[in-house]
Amino acid sequence: MSGRRRHLFTLETRTEVLDSFGDADLSYTTLSTAWGQLEAVSARERSESQQVKAEVSHRITLRYSSSYAGLTARTGSRS
Question: Structure pTM?
């Protein structure tokens, strides 16, 4: 593991599961884990309907694998 790749990411796929009422619930299934780099690239706050909404954008860098396409990366409590 390189010093730059210090975060362990859980790579998950998202699936929709119908509940007993026919509503879609999101479910995540872990497919793999990988070490990578996480860096914040921008942050901003905006006011909308008297509520403050915070947006943060991060860049995740992993070694290339074609099997990562379309997956959600999660580290700790972040996704």
Answer: 0.65
